[in-house]
Amino acid sequence: MVNLTINGKVVQAEEGEVLLSVIRREKIDVPALCHHEAVEAFGACRLCVVEITRQEWDGWCDYVTSCLYPASDGLIVNTHAAKVNDLRKTIVDLFLARHPKCPEIIELAAEYGVYSTTYQTVVDGDNCILCGLCTRICDRMGFHAISTVGRGHGKEVSPPLHKAPPDCTGCLACAQNCPTSFIEYSAAKGFLTIWDKKFELLKCSGCGKETITKVFAEHLCQERKIPFEYFQICDECHRKQLAATMGEITSWDREAAS
Amino acid sequence: MQLKNPKQLATLQKKYKAAEERFPKKVLICCGPGCLASGAQKISDKFKQVLKDKRIKGFSVEALKETGCHGFCEQGPLVIIEPDGTFYTRVKTKDVEEIIEMSVRKGETIDRLLYSPNGDGQRIQRYHDIDFYRHQDRIALANLGKISQCNIEEYIALGGYQALAKVISSMKPDQIIDEITESGLRGRGGAGFAAGRKWATCRKIESDVRYVICNGDEGDPGAFMDRAIMEGDPHAILEGMVIAAFAVGSSQGYIYVREEYPLAVVNLQKAIEQAEEMGLLGDNILGSDFSFKIRISRGAGAFVCGESSALMKSVAGEVGEPRAKYIRSVVKGLHDQPTVLNNVETLATVPVIINKGADWFKKIGTKKNTGTKAFSLVGKVRNTGLIEVAMGTTLRKIIYDIGGGIIDDRPFKAVQTGGPSGGCLPESQLDLPVDFDSLTEAGSMMGSGGMIVMDDKTCMVDVARYFLGFLVNESCGKCVPCREGLYQLHALTVRVCEGRATEADLEKMEKLSNQVIIGSLCGLGKSGPNPLLSTMKYFREEYLAHIRDKRCPAGVCRELITYEINDKCTGCMACIAVCATHAITGKKGEIHVLNQAKCTKCGACYAVCKHDSVVVS
Amino acid sequence: MKNRFIVNPDLCTGCRTCELACSFTHAIEGLRGQTRIYPLDGGFKDLWIPVVCLQCDDAACVKSCLVDALRRNSETGAIDLNQEVCVKCMACVAACPFGCSVVDQQHKLVVKCDLCGGDPACAHFCPTKALKWNPIEPQTRKVAV
Ligand SMILES: Cc1cc2nc3c(=O)[nH]c(=O)nc-3n(C[C@H](O)[C@H](O)[C@H](O)COP(=O)(O)O)c2cc1C
Ligand code: SF4
Ligand code: SF4
Ligand code: FES
User: Fold this and answer.
1) A178 inside 8 A of chain C by CB
2) A90 to B515: CB separation less than 8 angstroms, yes or no
3) Which of A42, B75, B206, B268 could crosslink B89 through cysteines, CB 3.0-4.6 Å?
4) Domains in chain B, start-ordered, CATH in brackets?
């Protein structure tokens, strides 16, 4: 355990634990758009920036992303120093210039008092903020179906060659975790479509409700040795089935007792 | 043949040296990238063809060498006759026979092919006497232009791999690190980090696996020092790497080369095979129990992949994006193992330091910046090419003495150093000693050593726009301040160029630049605004002229200039022929007329006019 | 583990107090959460089965989670779902053979019984003691019924 100071308060943390998790434990609000505990910290949005210093630094300060910076003894952290606020404001301003129609960004910018960008609005700016959560989570799931392509200002997220990704299982983890809901998918009539790839959805043999895609279920069966029958009925019918079984057993007890 | 111990290497050196001495005379044909582009291969083939059926006493095809870049690319193709160093420039295939007859057989010089500094008929015979070479100090580039490209025998004959033999037979790893630390060698890749300290840190970390990587990405536009070394003297890099590996305790190394350098890849690969065959690389080097293997890793040629963490990701086969380096890559680098990453030039310098000693090396350069640094000197100087000078040499000396001053004796305006992350320095900084610290202090950077000289016809706002544009495309696009911030800085600079900016925009540019610097993840973003900030600092009036007077003083920014034809026009019709929009009319012999409404300001007429009659206003 | 969760269907009257308790306990910012316990019709007269996570030893949910969001809590014995890590892929929801990993539509979360971190609210509130949170005798490791 190490002792560090956050906004004037001495707090404890594990040595090497990233500052963001200490900050969140202290219930201090620091924005973060590219962070997710399921994947390694990335440091792309730069919103979680904080000011750090140490006694022995003689007043010199550094600006680091708290999602990546490890806690250490004697560190002095200021999550809302003037320069930090300024930088965050610039970042949301830049975001707003690039994604002028994105509701999440508009809302975030307003929190920082930015109601219209001071920079040049990017004409064809879409809502993908390039936080890389989708690609990283997809990698973490073990599929590697999508990735960022290109670099610089023209970078984008895409399946290989902009074609339906062969390795996608339709698990939807990318879309579920997109902070701006930019990744589109549709489910209709027993099929799910995402990244231009169409998947058959499993149908509950009890009530007909559609659950996950067949490809994803098959992947889980194979990789994690789960019997395929488990996937053939939905959670609700599973519960009913359990109640019925337990009911039957209990009824034997009752009969025996009477 | 596998060498079993250092002694065998010494014997071999004697043998190769004797073989070299069989021929008192040698013909060196520069086959560096510049000379190849101007036709060196054809010259060499012609030599071989002619020599095939000629018998010359004390000379044969074996004394003909295709060497690496000799440096003076602008004068290529270059042919040098050793031992006296007769220096033939701009050689053509039709000159070959004459060279063989006159120079090789008879030992005479062909005046016409000698270098003429002022084009006034005065000619210089030996290259050592040419200003371009006279003021240079060559360590990393020492073998370039002297030995055949990737020929291990010639490299050994010149004392190659002796440093390796020395460390293996008589030095402990710590001694090597001390020697390098003592020499003061700083990384030549840009940041100037002390090589010895990096090695020492790496060695200290507990780990079974450590890596040594050579950074041959060289993404700066205009720079080609590393390329020249990789193509022309690959063994020096290998030797440096093996020594580094021995010092830090690594058994696997990588050389990261960009795909755009196919010859470098081929030559390095060849060199690796040659060295492995002789037991100078691979298992049980020189019969010791130290083993080290090197693999080549090819990069897709992204500028950002030169950045250490992006490079390591790329080597590992992932997307080449930087990561935050709160834990440095010496500690946790390739595959999360301790890794030493050094630049090509840094590594090529290592064997020389081991051979000649830290004390010798320290005497060159300045106290905190020892040794030499290679630059590619390009732009509006008379002599362009590859140079190497002692650290602390002034910009003036480089530009005027080595570079021969500005073309057409126009006024010097600025010199850009450090590539896209560097900055532009004005005339007032000409006496600045060129070293890591001075350049950084002046608002520029050493970078990997690009040096672009600009004259008064260069618009500094336009220069900033060019570099920002480069970075907008070359940023990896991961973090917001760099991806979006540089984009907006570029957009603002374009506004200045087009005369649409206000003085408030200048302030905004300054502020945003500073935010990009503190906010960006890696060195690219952190130094990206440098070209803008340095030009705004040193050439503020030029920005103000664009903003206040809507005028581009250098006559470059299209939106702010008009072309006119004055009465010097002879009516030669050259401009009419090149104007794509038919904006110029006129009869032969009569003064032509330019229709402003049709003019797109492409500048073609300006470039083609021989009578200075197309003018910019 | 000091306690064990006991379900005795014989005593369940289907009053659904447990559901309420669960839902309130798992409220987020004042908004009631999805219940993790379901008293369901047992198929016989007056027979109710409170269906709740069995915290299986070799749990299908844990196996199905590709990002390790589900882990056994050694203190409580529950399989805890770490919301910060969960990527909402629905694998566990689909895989659990007892339907005990469920979707909280309101909060857009996947949730499951966490034994309230070691003090299950449902057991507290169950008026008939059909649900109990009983200590395990340290020596015998037997549960008092
Ligand atoms: C954007 C960027 C590009 C870089 N490009 C190169 C390069 O092309 N070649 C190089 O040797 N170093 C480059 N560097 C520096 C490397 O990160 C690293 O510092 C260097 O290779 C270390 O070797 P040295 O200590 O021998 O200089 C670059 C750095 C940054 C931030
Ligand atoms: S500073 Fe630029 S190049 Fe570096 S990580 Fe950020 S976006 Fe990529
Ligand atoms: S929904 Fe969440 S907890 Fe369930 S398997 Fe997916 S990631 Fe794991
Ligand atoms: S959360 Fe995005 S940079 Fe830290």
Assistant:
1) no
2) yes
3) B75
4) 25-82+86-125 (3.40.30.10), 152-362 (3.40.50.11540), 372-458 (3.10.20.600), 461-548 (1.20.1440.230), 562-616 (3.30.70.20)
